[in-house]
Each structure stands twice: as C-alpha cells, then as structure tokens.
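Sequence in, structure out. Go.
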Amino acid sequence: GGGGGGAAAEYPDWGAGGGGAGCYITGTTPISTPTATPMAITIGRGGRGGWGPSWWVSPFASLGEQSSQSGGDGTPSIAAFPSGTITAPGGGAGGCSSSVGADGGCNGAGGGSGGGAGSAGPTAGGQATGSNFPGTIGAGTFGYDGGDHPDGHNNYGSGGGGASEIGSTATPTAVGTGGDGIQLPATFRDPAAIYGAPGPTTAPTPNGFSTTGKHWVAGGGGGGQGPSSSFDAPGGVGGGGYGGYGGAPGNARGGIARDTCGAGGGGGGGNTQPTNGGGGGGTGGTGLVLIAY
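Output:
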C-alpha cells in the first residue's frame, strides 16, 4: 500500500511524527480464467505530507484551502483477481505536535506520534495488526505500530512503523527512527529492476533474505526534530523517509520522502526552528503491485 505522510512541525520547538509504511502482503491465488480477462490493478498513493502550523491561516482560505498539519494516510493497493480481490491498505499518517499518530488501515503500519506541545502528556503511536516478524517472506501480512511519545515537553517526534519493526519511540534527548521494512521474495528480485529501496548487504535473518542490498520495501518514516537538533532522523530500511531537522534562521527543513521506486515507505516528519516556524512533512511513497505467474 501507499505510505503515510509525515506530519508538519509546530512552531516554536516541537518535532513531528513520521508516517507509517503501507501494508505488505504476499501470497498465491489461483487464476483459471482466460488470459484476456480484465483484472484491474490500483496502485496506492502516498499520503500527503503535513504542512502549515496549526495557527497558520492559508491566504487561500476564502477558497476553502486550510492548513493541514497532520500528514495524510496512504491509500491501498488493490488487485482485483477473478478468484477474489486482494487489498494492501495504506500506512497511517504521522502525528503533529502533541497529537497521536494515525492508525494504519487493517495491517497498514501506524504513524509515529508527534513531539510535545506545552503541558501535553504522553501520546500514542498509530496502531497496526501485522504478523509477527521474522516470518516467511514469501507469505504473510506485515505492518507494525508507530512509535509512542513518552513526554509531552520534548522536541522530538517518533518514527512510523515499518513492515518488520515498530517505529522507534522518541526520548527527551533523541528522535525516533522509522521501523524497518522487508525484502521482496526471491521470485521478484530481478537484478535489472529498480523497484524497491536499498537495504542491508548482510542478511539479518536466515529466512530467505539475499545480500544484494536491493528490493526492500515498506520502511517507516523517521521523526522530525526541534531547533536544538541538527541531524537527520533515519527512516526504516525499505524506503522510509528521513525526518527533518532544525537549524539556523532560514534553514527550516521538512521531512524527506526517500521512496522514489514504489517502495511504499512512510514520509519523514517535519522539523521546526526558532524564527521561521515549522517545516512540512514528507509525502509517503507510492505503493507497488508485483505479479508472477
């Protein structure tokens, strides 16, 4: 499914949560109809990154445009086979400021919770109901929760969930990273293909992973940071976007959508900095449908 969008940061010093990855589903289904039978395929769209702090009023408000600080949810990827429709839901959006991350649609990974605002208390990451991991990469449904946020006062956002790992929880001194994704089954690892995102060159488990460093998908987006930080928050392996960071005046930076090859990763959370307000969140990555027959 399409990845969830990262949230925008709130002025003056609160980081935003990263978006959750789209749901990852693999399996087999029988097809016994003529090859000319239409089979509609829908590719999930990545959720829009959040933009505009909560107090900001759009100059086009009279035309109905409003600021949208939270990110948008990703949309599902759908394969309408004659034997039954298969749907991989989109990932949940990252949470802004003191808000919770959005739940992933049935098994879609949840978005991370946002950084604190004022006296706000702890906030929860978005929920997902993915299978336990490690699992068999050739079959299953995967998606994990976004990171919680333990302290409403700190500058950091939590990471969005990935296909194989929950999003990392922010702490008073560290931003949350995105949960890792998963490698595609061997059937779909065409050496000449560019789909998917870079990954590790050492196999993390003996469950069928290759060491090519290719064909990883569905990583969660990294959380955004406040002005006291100056480094990127990494997204999860498999296309998760980097979170933004704070900086010198004029250097506000939004989240980055690292996913450019249909990996369904979550967008990174936006940063904020003292003078120019909050940066926007990264847009989630587009989904992907692969069929072997």
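Check: Residues 247-251 have pLDDT under 50 and may be disordered. The two ends are 21 Å apart (CA to CA).
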